[in-house]
Amino acid sequence: MNPTPQYLALQKFIQEKIAPGILAHGGYVDIVDLQDNVVTIELSGACGSCSVQAFTSESLTNYILDEFPELEDVIVKDVSS
To answer: How many structural domains are present in the chain?
Structure first.
């Protein structure tokens, strides 16, 4: 797969701005898919059983859409560890 500039920018943003905070709470975040201006990210590790997981998902969605207004949606998948 040859990553697009948009994918690379999203990956860098997630690694630098989002992943450190998620990792500090025992979780991980990865891009699963980027198609038709919809990005799917996956939370794993401690995120799957976190009591504020819904808040985290909503916050991540808003943060990514604010930074990348060309995106139409962010889908957050949760995978329990």
So the answer is: 1
Q: What are the pLDDT digits (tens) for 31-74? A: 999 999 999 999 988 876 677 778 888 999 999 999 999 999 99
* Closest to 52 (Cα-Cα) out of 33, 29, 78, 75: 78
Q: Which domain holds residue 43?
A: 5-78
pTM: 0.87
61 with 74: CB under 8 angstroms? Answer: yes
With H, G, I as helix, E, B as strand and everything else as coil, classify residue 25.
coil
Element (H, E) at 42: strand 38-45
